[in-house]
Amino acid sequence: MSGAFTARSQVAIVGYAQSPIVRHASAPLGAIAIDTVLRAIADAGLTKDQIDGFTTGSLLPTSGAHASVDGVSIVTASWLAEQLGIDARFAAGFQGFGQIPGSVMLAVNALATGAADSVVVHRALHNPPRGRYHVNPMTEAHGAMQWTAPQGFFGPLAMIALPYNEYLQRYGASRDAMAAVLVEARANGARIPWSYWRDKPITEADYLAARVIADPIGVLDCDIPVDGVAAFVLTRADRAQDLPNRPVYVAGYAQGMQHRPRLPMHWPLDDIMDAGFEIARRLEASSGLALRAVDVPQLYDGFSPFVYFWLEALGYCPVGEAHRFVQDGGIRTDGGLPILSGGGALGNGRMHGVPQMLECYLQLAQRAGDRQLASATVGLACHSSPHYGGAVVYTAEPL
Amino acid sequence: MSDVPAKPVPVPDEQSAAFWAAAANHVLALARCAHCGTYVHPPGVVCPGCLSTDGQFAFVPVSGRGTVRSWTVLRDSFLPGFRDDVPFVLVDVELDEQAELRLIGRLVDGPEAPLRIGDRVTTVFDSLAPGVAVPAFALEVQS
């Protein structure tokens, strides 16, 4: 048996800021990051000199052929500290794909151990110039890529198409069912001021008419690449009491692991689901809460099939039933499980797990304005595929 | 001729040279641990079966036969060299030799061929350049 999670309710989110989410920002990413982080610190009721920690995940999630430049196409924790002139006691980057839960885990661990007193968790995402996001003119395939690129297996669409088709075939599902997910994500995103898809809901017919790129993945099954930055301020729970916003507490977290060597970007359905079931167990052990008690579950949706995988892995519907569950109104924010109430990545743009974390914060802090849910006591913010990702459980009251 | 650029050719390295040399002769040979007999693909520096790290892998010809676990039809490609090939089918194949020994390759039967999970396939080879061949798959003819 593993021991209890001793950081439970020891750390709280106390402020945030979110930049507008646009296709191509007029300012460099680093400039937007600095402005957004300073706004988050002010929102938390703190000053810059009270921040002594920074965590992030800085991955630029493309397969295109371009270099990552700190402050321009990525923004690391150390770059941010340096530019802000803060001699941070703790600055760290999360290297995996589940970057939002990963960065929160680093921050929580630093705060709970006293390695830092107030930590900025930020995420900056960049959309390279048009036509260069995933397109890669490589004529030689070196290293891991030699096993897949010469066959034409390259990039994340083929990657997610294989387990998605495995799901459809195994459970006799139709790709048309996913329209319910897109309609819900975009309806909620349309209500969010900073969303790229603000005031742009879609219909089932729009979804069905969209171009299919890698069967069964179509263009609308993918979140749209954007420029955008979000920042959160986390501090120790005892300090959070004195700050202006209602604290939102971290109750627990969990990561999923891919523990079998695979070809690059080869994501068999069972690898994804086995890790997902384990994340569910780890989340309940870490938080001491049943996932059934979560009233603000925010499931990751960077590719639409992740919604099915997370729904089933977390036990919100039986395995093989997610495609029916979404069609039967199961994820409608009015009357169903509000898993996309924050719009997700499909309803905001490719902000990775930011929309999930932000919606948990806004709802639990009672800061969601006219989108405020009637019941918002326990939040769950997921990110990435379960087998490379993770999730964080938040509560409105300390446990 | 179109102005479609070249497809990426595999660049053999210390771990992969024997695989590509066999493929050039249209033989599918996979790395097999000399200690525990586990097939390892892609070949690496550690055997996931016994954690041996001395690099004692022999490249052993395998049947090339297996079952389809999933597939996708690519209607566009992020690799410009494949733009004249779309639409094409990629299959995720579990080889008969070992559970979870999986390869991904083009299905030469094309996007119109009816396909189901569990269908039987055999390995064929696509010639990419002089002396370079890449494993692909063909549906086995039902007897």
Kindly describe this structure.
The complex is a heterodimer of chains A (399) and B (143). Chain A is an alpha/beta fold and 399 residues long. Chain A has helices at 29-43, 77-84, 99-112, 156-171, 179-189, 204-209, 237-240, 269-287, 305-313, 322-327, 344-348, 354-364, and strands spanning 11-18, 53-56, 90-93, 118-125, 140-141, 212-214, 217-218, 228-236, 248-255, 296-298, 378-383, 390-395. Chain A contains 12 helices and 12 strands. In chain A, strands 3-2-4-8-1-9-12-11-10 form a 9-stranded mixed beta sheet, with helices on both faces. In chain A, strand 2, helix 2 (77-84) and strand 3 (90-93) form a beta-alpha-beta unit. In chain A, helix 8 packs across helix 9. Chain B has one helix at 17-24; strands at 9-10, 29-33, 39-40, 57-61, 65-74, 88-95, 102-107, 120-129, 132-139. Chain B has a 5-stranded antiparallel beta sheet with strand order 7-6-5-8-9, covered by helices on one side. A 3-stranded antiparallel beta sheet of chain B has the order 3-2-4, covered by helices on one side. In chain B, a hairpin with a 6-residue loop joins strand 6 (88-95) and strand 7. In chain B, 36% of the residues are buried. Classes of the chains: A alpha/beta (399), B mainly beta (143). Chains A and B meet through strand 5, helix 4 and strand 6 of A and strand 1, strand 5, strand 6, strand 7 and strand 9 of B.
